[in-house]
Every structure is written in C-alpha cells, then in structure tokens.
Amino acid sequence: MNNALQEAFDQSKYKLTGHGRRNIQVLKDAFEDVDGQLDSDLYGEGKVIEDFQDKMAAFLGKERAVFFPSGTMAQQIALRIWCDEKGLPKVAYHPLSHLEIHEEDGLKELHNIKTTLIADETRVIELEDVVSMEDSVACLLLELPQREIGGQLPSYETLEGISKYCRNNGIRLHLDGARLLEVLPYYEKTASEVCELFDSVYLSFYKGIGGIAGAILAGGEEFVTKSKVWKRRYGGDLISLYPYIVSADHYFNQKSNKMPLYYENAKELADFYNSCHSVSTLPKIPVSNMFHVHFPQPKEEIETVLIEVMGKTGVGLINHLRATGESSCYFEVSVGDRYGEIPIEAVKHAFIQLDECMRNKFPS
Amino acid sequence: MNNALQEAFDQSKYKLTGHGRRNIQVLKDAFEDVDGQLDSDLYGEGKVIEDFQDKMAAFLGKERAVFFPSGTMAQQIALRIWCDEKGLPKVAYHPLSHLEIHEEDGLKELHNIKTTLIADETRVIELEDVVSMEDSVACLLLELPQREIGGQLPSYETLEGISKYCRNNGIRLHLDGARLLEVLPYYEKTASEVCELFDSVYLSFYKGIGGIAGAILAGGEEFVTKSKVWKRRYGGDLISLYPYIVSADHYFNQKSNKMPLYYENAKELADFYNSCHSVSTLPKIPVSNMFHVHFPQPKEEIETVLIEVMGKTGVGLINHLRATGESSCYFEVSVGDRYGEIPIEAVKHAFIQLDECMRNKFPS
C-alpha cells in the first residue's frame, strides 16, 4: 500500500514537496562547472575542504568549522567533547532528538554517555524545563526546529534565556541545526546571530540545502581541533570528502537565499491543508519550510484518499504516511523548489478535491 | 624541502607511481556514462548500493557485504562484533596495523577493546606467533600485504595454518584486505579462495583499485546484519553513499584485472632500484604492486639526489620521503597505471642517473 502511495506520487505531474528527485543528476549538476583539475582534499587537508570550512565558520560566526560525512557522527563527537571537558558523561536533550530515536543508541554504545530527556513528546524545550532539570549535565542539545513534532520552535527570547542560563550554570549548549537555515526567516536573524547563543553548532547539507550528504560542525578552535581527532577515530576522516563538499557548496550557494520563499510557501501550503475537512497541520502556522499533516483516521483509509486525489489532479501531495495509532496518521511536508514550479490553480484544484474526498469519506 | 620534492615530482613528464593525480576528474570520469536518472541509495537501501554489495559478496565468496565510507569504520566494527560474540574485548594484530598507528586509538577509545601485538616491526605474523600467544583473544586481524613493512606477505601455507589454528581454537580471523586484490597474483589465488580462510574481510577501493574512497566489509549473514547497526551508530549510514559506490564500481571494473600487470611492473621497478648504488627495496622482490625503497643516508641528502635526478630526466620517482632515524630514510612505492605509460628507455635512463648520482654523493 505504501508502494501504491509512492507510485501515485511518482506519476503525478506536479509535486508539492522537496526540491526534486534524489538521483545522480544531483551530483552531475553540482560538478558540471567544477574544474576536473582541482585536487582532491586529502584526509581533511587541501583547498577544497579548507576553503569550505572557512566559509562555513564565517557564515555561522564561529572560530572554526570542520566538514563531517554525517551529522550523526558530528553530534556524538560534539557531546563527547563537552562531556570530557566537564568530566561528566551526561547530556540533556528532547525525547524525540535524532540521537535518541535514529542512531541505534550510538552515543550510549560508543561513549557510555547517559542522557536526560527534557520536555515531552508534544512540545519543544522551554526555559523552565532547563531550569528545573534535576540531573547535572555537561551539555544541553537543542534541535531547531524540533523535527519530529512538525518542526516547532521555541521563541527567540526562550533561546536567549536558555543560553544565558546554561552559560551561568556551566552547561555547554549545542545546536542541532540540521535545518538551521530553514528557521532563520521566522526568527528574522542571521545564522551567526543564532549560533552566537550556542557553544557548538551542527549544520546539514541535504535537508533544505538539497546537497547529497555531509555536515559541518563549528565552534571554538580547541573544540574543533578535538573534533578532528574524534573524526579520525570514527573513520570519518576520509581520504576524499570532496564529492559531498563540492555539492554542499554548490547547493548552499543556490538555495541558502531561498529559505524565506520556502517558509512563505510552507505557510501557504499549510493553509491549504487546514482548509480541508478533517485535516490539520502541526504547527498550524509553520515556522520553517516544514510541518506535519495529521488525520484522525486510519492510515489505510487516508492512503486511499491521497491516491485518489493525486490520480484525479496530477498533483503529488506526498509519498509516505505514518500511522500514529490504529485510528490516526500523519505525514511530514518539506517545502523546496518544486512547490514554486506548480501553477497555483493546479494546487487549489488539488485541495478542493482533497476537501471533497475527505467530506465524502468521513462525513462528520 | 618536502615541498621541493613534491614540486619536482609534479613537474616531471613521467611518473613512476600510482594511477594518476587524485583530482576531481577521477569522479567526473566515473560518472560520465552513468544515467543521471538513476536513483540515489537511501540509508543503505536501493539498487545502486544493493547491487554493488551483492557483486562484492560474490567476488569475495561471502554471504553478504556492506558498503562503508571507510575501512577504519568497517574494521573497528568487525572487531567489536567478534569481541561481543565471545564476550571478550581483546584482539590481536601486528604492531604496525592501521588500527594501531593511524586511527588515533579509535578501537580503544570507542570500544574499550584491548589489543595484543604479535610478531614485531620487522616481519609479518607467522603461525608460531599465533600459536604462542599467551593472551586469549576474540579475534586475530591479518593485514595482507603488511603495508608498513613494504607490503610483505606470509606464505599461503602459513595463512592456511593460521586459519586452521584459529578455527580450532575459537579465534575469529579478520582480513585487513585493503590491498587484497594486489596480492592475488603472487598467491595465484582468487579473492574468494583467500577470503575462505577468514571469517570477515575488508576491502578498500582507493588503493590499487583507484576509486575515490569507501570500503566493503563482508562476512556471514548475521555478522553483516550486526555491522549495519554499528554503521548507523557510527554515523556511517549516510543517506547517500553513491558518490563512492559508483566510482568504486567503475574503477573496480577498470583495474581489478590489471593487478598481475602492476605486480610484474613492481618487480621490474624494484629491480631498477636495487641496481643502484646504496639503494635497496623491501621486500627485495615485491609480492604485490608495492614496496619500500631504503637509503642508509639522511633524508635531506637523499631529497637532493631525488630532486636532481627528476630534474635531469623528467622521470618522477617519488613525491615523499620519510626519515627512519638521523641517518636513514625510505619511501613507499605503489605501482599503478602510470608506470606502463612511460617509455622503458626513459625509465632506464632515470635509474642510470640515480645510480651515478648516488655513487658521486656517497662513494663507498
């Protein structure tokens, strides 16, 4: 059934989510204008990696930055460094943090670092959660936006308050900024203004930026020097990371200025969903390019609806759907380049159809 | 001074070592004929990664294989799995193993695995070293060829003896086969015949094969399944590994059948070095495409000689040189495609010059 949803999405003329298909053309486009005579990086050294690291350090307002194959690796290492600094193998983060649910417990298995989960699965971490923590921790990780709850954000004042509290209480503050660029339009801040509140920052290149893979970890001189030793230990200090670096740079240049557009489009798209019978988004008004779409009906029934609407309208709504229980389900929307390429009339038509179909199938 | 050596090498018309420059053209060539519409792998799944893993499993004669970003990651994980299986966090390997000298103690820092170093820095591990080990270990790692001593090999009978002993004594045997293909012509065996002696095998794609980066870890079904969990924990389960996979496949197809040629060329080239005054290779007769060239003179003086010979002849001998003390030095030679592209007269001329220059500078 999930395959049928993917197929219906693939066959749609227009697609509401993402930048485009994750295929090899993404690499070909990134390398098309790059001189083949440019030398590879070599175990973390060389122009191609050093230039990009310098560019990202400046962009994030940090002393130094280091390119990693993945955010999983970069973030575990950041937390380990802060734990070692304090001699306290304990960190705090949200119960739906990437480290808690997507990394097979790497942090615990590889570093024996204990975790304190703060806030709960329905909301973001607030200052009060941090102040009232009973455990002593070396580091607090904040994920902006909190992806697994639709990409919600604390207020900027909350961020400032948490940052101040952590600095006053000897707690390092790390930013899971996988989607950092995507939240800047809502905060109306630059990347370096946000990063200034944090001791270390991770940024991903294959979410909103649309690269192939790879991540940047940024912070002070000493922190970054240590992170390179750990990168070697992890087997992340590859002889050549340029396939990810060149593409990260290419798509960063292409997409980093488009985040305000994606944000505006996400608000418009969420509005379309919320106009449909029995459909709601989380958050109701997006604060980045992403949100979740919830249905108080079983996954199987909603799949039928989505496939029908996509077939009728040629507008690809989504390619995946997750049950949240026996009688409800949701999907995640990430707005990228594709949304802007669709005639608005086609989008409107699709949502009129979705609304009708929901009313017919689930009359209240 | 090392820069001067690199410059002299770069400016030489011909180059005796390697396949070519490690530049972005290596990627461009690999992707030139690949359809841009081919989908990316996705967190270890999809045609591009699964097909290559199946191909490598078959080539190595193992049940399954998994693609890793690096051998460092793959091998630490292999050893961890075998240690967990036996409930004994201890492994044995050569004192100049990659894990011991190039990985910032990742195995110890990330897994708390203890190591027993067997044999010594001048020779390969023999059956007697294994039989006389006092410590109980979960796994023995053999590196074929032993790179840091010029790429030496035990006899095939020794391999068979070690394999039999390990199986009879409950010790897992892991192959550091970074350069496995390069030793097959000497052993006159297929890859799967050699791998049959081992429980798990790692193969690299950027040594003799000439790819960009990446590695295969192969073994039984259960072993490989566990390795994928650890790959996720390490942050090695990238959303897209295809830049390395496509290039690994491309260069594997291009170079895997050329290993006998590289081996023959290496023997010829070593012979040229050994014909020069005060120059010797280790091993004297290579057993793969690699060997070391030793000089009983200080590094600075040999650099002068090498730069002079390269300048006079246009033949690039080498781009690096390492001191082994105050009064001796060596460099590593890896024979690849470039050697075969040089007119033999130019090679001969270069070694006549090297011999003359050594005689003049260091009359005995």
From TrEMBL, chains A, B:
Q: This chain belongs to which protein, by name?
A: Beta-eliminating lyase-related protein
Q: Which Pfam families match?
A: Beta_elim_lyase
Domain Aromatic amino acid beta-eliminating lyase/threonine aldolase as annotated: residue spans: 39-283
Annotated Gene Ontology MF terms? lyase activity
Query: So which cofactors does this thing need?
Result: pyridoxal 5'-phosphate
Is Lyase given among the entry's keywords? Answer: yes
Superkingdom to which the source organism belongs: Bacteria
Which UniProt keywords are given for this protein, alphabetically ordered?
Lyase, Pyridoxal phosphate
Is Lyase among this UniProt entry's keywords?
Answer: yes
Q: Which SUPFAM superfamilies would you find in this protein's record?
A: PLP-dependent transferases
Which family does the record assign? Belongs to the threonine aldolase family.
